[in-house]
Every structure is written in C-alpha cells, then in structure tokens.
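Lecture 7 notes: from sequence to structure.
We start with the chain below.
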Amino acid sequence: MDVSGPPPEQWGHVPARNAHSVGREDHLQRLRRLLGPAGAGPVLPLALHGMGGVGKSHTVAEYLHRHASEYEVVWWISAEQPAQIKAGFAELAERLDVAGAGAADRAVPAVLDALRRGAPYRRWILVFDNADRPQDVRRYFPAGNGHIVVTSRNSEWGRFAELVAVDVFTRAESIELLRRRAGDLDDAEADALADALGDLPLAVEQAAAWHHQTGMQVPQYLQLLEENRVELLEAGTSDDQLPVAAAWNVAFNELEEHHPAALQLLQLCAFFGPEPIPLRLFQDASGAEVPEPLATALDDPILLRQAIGWISRYSLAKIDRRANALQLHRLVQTVLKNRLSPEQQAVMRHAVHVLLAGKRPMPAMSTRLGFLVDVVQYGTRSRDQRLEAQHRLSDLVDAVIDRVGLNRTTVDLQEGGDSVLTFVGAEVDMVRTLPLLLEGWRELLRAYNGKSSDRVRLRMAIAAGSVATTKLGFVGEPAVTLGRLIDCQVLRDAVTDNEDADVVVLISNTMHDLAEVDRRDPAFLRRHVDVRNYSGDAWLWLG
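Predicted structure tokens for the same chain:
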C-alpha cells in the first residue's frame, strides 16, 4: 500500500512509476523489512542482484514511489562509472546547498559530511544504479541514519551489503503483465509468449509493447523469435526503455576486454540447449579442440574456475554448485549467438561437438540414417496442448519405427519437448527405408489428425552419414545437418505455403543420393539451402 504524505524535499532522477507494474510484492516487502522506517537508525546497505533485464531498478523505483513521503531526500545515481557518481553528487550538493557545490572533487566530501551529520536532512535514501564494481562505488557510501540501495549484476556485493536476489517473473506474473499491457491477448497466447521469452521481465514488457504498437500477432512474433531474429531484442519500444539485448551487452563487452576466456565459455554454452549444462563437461576437457584462450582455461582448473566465477559475478548464467551445472537464459543464448560471425558460430558449434564427444576415445562412427521432427507452431499452443503434442509426437515416432520394421534395439532417440531426433541402425537398407519412412509419417499423421480436432503438423529433416552416439547426444556431420535443415527458411516457407500437408520434409542431398532416389522423380523437389554457414542442395517432399 502506498504511504501518503508530503513529497520529499529533494527528489532526484528517480525513474517514472510504471503504470503497468505487476508482481514483485515479496521483494518489495523484503526491502521494507530490511530497511525499516526512514531515519530509524543505521542499516546495512542493500544490493539487489540479478541478471540484466530481471527488473532490479524497476523494483527499487517502485519501492521509492511507495515510500517517498517517509524521506526528505531521495536521490538516484547512475553508478556504472565513477564520473557519473561524481556528477550525481555535484548536483545533490547544490540541492543540499552545502559548501563545495559546483565542483565534483569538493562536492563529494561535502555531501558525505552533510548526510553523515543529518544536516540539513536526516531522512535520506541514495540509490546507486548499475553499480557493478564495488571497489569503485563503496567509497561514495555516506555514514549516518539514511538508507543505501544498490542494483547490480555483480554477486560480489554480498561481501559488503545485504544481498537481495531478483530472478525472472513467475509465469503468473508474466501473463498478468502481458494481459494488462497488450489488452487483447488471451491466456493461451500470453502463456506461449511468456514461455518463449523465459519469463524475463524486460523481454515480456517489450513483447507486450511491440504487440500493442505494431499489431503483430503472437504466432508471427513467436516465429521470428524461433528463427533467432535478434532485431526483436535489439529494438526498444520507447525512448526511455533499454532494449533487451543492451541489458547484457555491457557485461559481454566487459568480459571481452578483461576476461575473454569467460566470454568464450559463455559463447560455447550458447550452442547447447537451454537446460542446465554439466560443468564436468568443461572440467574434464583438458586438451579439447576449442579456441584460445578458452583452451588454456580448460587445461588449468584454476583458470576455469575463475572464468566460471566471472560469469556468475555478472549474473550472465545460473551456477548451481550443488548440481555442478551452469544454465543460460534462452534469450542470452540468442544474443550471444548473434554477436558472432557465421565463421565464429561454426567454430563454437564444432567445439560443442568436440566436448560432447569428450576427451576420451571417440565412440565408433557408423553411417546411419537420421531424422529430426518437430511440431509446427508449437509455441502458439496452450500448455495443455503442448503437453498433448509432445505425447502425440512420441507415440508417432514409436509407431513409425514399428511400421517401417526397424529393430528397436538399434534405434537411438533424443527427445526435446517439441522435437525428436532419431538415428536408425547402421544395418538399415536406406534404399528401402526412405520411401517407407516418408509414407509411414504421412499415413500415420493423417490417421491421427483424422481422430482429433487438434490438428498436429510436423516439419522434418532427414540426413545420413557418419555419426556416433555419446551419453549426451549425437556427434557427427548428420546431426549438424539435421539441425540446420530443420531451422532453414526453405523448410519454414514450405510449411507455410503447403497448408494441406500434415508433414513437410527436407532431405539432405547426401541422404537423397545414398537412398538412390531418381533425381527426375516429381515427388522430390530440389531446393537450395543456405543457412548458418551451411550451403547446399536438399530435396523437398510433402506429405
């Protein structure tokens, strides 16, 4: 509840109150408990800590608006650089009418002395926003009965202040904000958007504003996100709102300049899935074929630990010490990927395959047929519909394996929610299997969709070549090819242009040749694919 009363005598640079503010009540109540009433006595500084975009500054600003009348001075200081802090103190010195006003070097000690003495004001609160270097900021902390609040990505503040962790929204908070801000979204659309954005508050706010301003429908927005269209994350929706990507670029640039091995480790992790990544992958990777200086860090446990520490310090990933795992937010992964050139992406993607294979002897490679299948517009479905689609996809894969007559003991599967990656046994006759596989998918999907009001459409990539199976996935060129084909614009356009087809398939040229398909067969349409440093012919088939 807002505290009524006269406004502060001095109110400086506090962000405007967000009319669409939702959630964060637990954080606001905790701030109140830790700070207590203004002027009641000295308290430990508070530091709101979390990754960029979770709403640290927004939460503090909301607290100030609610409790403004308790203070005589409320002053907000941008603290990314010492020069900004000095400028903030110089302006405050003029407001306080203390000796030294007008010159930063004299203003800082004058303000610190005035606040310590409580003259002319005893009840004050200073906010140091984006204060990522404690050693540069703590010298500006005044003593006295006032309050000090810091917002930062740097977890090192826990050594000097009471740390308050700020994480992403709950799903309910995301949906509430989307419904309130966008207005015409239903719960299913809001849930799909929140899921795709990983409940990151800044991204949720900007997606809602984008929808409100442009009228872009949710399926189209989700499609652009799925294609890693980073321009959605690099464009703000108002002059005073930081774009999502910019919330992390400062930290990325800091790592690039001072801790390049940590940045390379992050870039490497961007090419894993969004699930937690076991740190033992890196701890056991001495001698792995990865770029420098990351290769040196993987050879030295101390350097590796330092790199992981810098990632944690800037809140660019969650480090679960108990599970010994690291996890990146999916939008952080998107921004990291798009900062790299196609050549750099290829290097990092190859390094991931090397790490998955491990430093131990490479598992035996064999020529195998593989297919990757996923659900069209999976992200636009409600949570219940997505769960049903996952079950249906799993059942369909089992049914296709049985229909084609494959030996289940030699089939390897890797499920990913809306997708399933499958490699069949090396003994399979590809000339016989490819047409059976295609017809099997077409007939089974037709039968499934005929019995359900919720039609499921699939897109599929099929490739073949030398591949190995590891504990953490498949290694080899076919696995890479499948990932590129399934995401390429050629396949996406074919899905859109052929609404009547239940399954749209893109077959690699190597697979097409190994299966001895007649290039004049009208059922197969030659298409050129150019995606993520991959260029070559493929063959389109509609089911």
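Points to note: Residues 171-234 form one domain. Residues 237-241 have pLDDT under 50 and may be disordered.
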